[in-house]
Amino acid sequence: QVQLVESGGGLVQPGGSLRLSCAASGIVFHRHTISWYRQAPGQQRELVARSFDSGDTYFVDSVKGRFTIARDNAKNTVYLLMNSLQVEDTAVYYCEALNHWGKGTLVTISL
Prior knowledge:
seven-stranded mixed beta sheet; globular
């Protein structure tokens, strides 16, 4: 059974940083693409970043240069490193693999 557990969300001021973690179980981690999505209040869920099993990465334009993604295959964990956070980054962040989803972690950017 695939399980994904996000952590690391919280309240930070604009310009701050956070590191989100997605711990996976039930999959051969290094063989799969892991994605981060977010859903802001009243908006549709959107893809933020992706860590491919090949080692390649993808970022949506709005976070390029501010977010990075790293994976630790030994720990079955993918990290979303978020810098220069903006109010517009406020959302619940979810990780996804093989069409399985975690429950999300809330990121709030506010003064």
